[in-house]
Amino acid sequence: MKRKLAAKIIAALGMTILWGSYVNHDWQTWKQRGETEYLSHEAHLFEKCVATLQSTHSMLIQSALIVLGALIVYEGIAWLLSKILGTKSSGRL
Predict the structure, then answer these.
(1) Position 62 in a domain
(2) Which residue among 15, 25, 37, 87 has the highest number of C-beta atoms inside a 10 angstrom radius?
(3) Cβ(15)–Cβ(73) under 8 Å?
(4) Is residue 27 part of a domain?
(5) pLDDT score for 42
(6) How many structural domains is the chain composed of?
(7) What pTM was computed for the model?
């Protein structure tokens, strides 16, 4: 049980570090491009995503798929880490 818990904690930390690295890289990229290009991009995203409303069903399905995908990736990483961290069993349960 401790092996599974350790694997889940390491997987959560790893995914957090990867997400933070992605956000930092994105921030650095927009910092290099400049304020006007950033504001132009944000205005385009606003027109594309906010100004034109999607149906509630569509948004719920998209949100569920994103959460399901994230959970599958997390559980896959945790399972893989538990296999890597595991030791050979001596035949005892």
Answers:
(1) yes
(2) 15
(3) yes
(4) yes
(5) 93
(6) 1
(7) 0.66
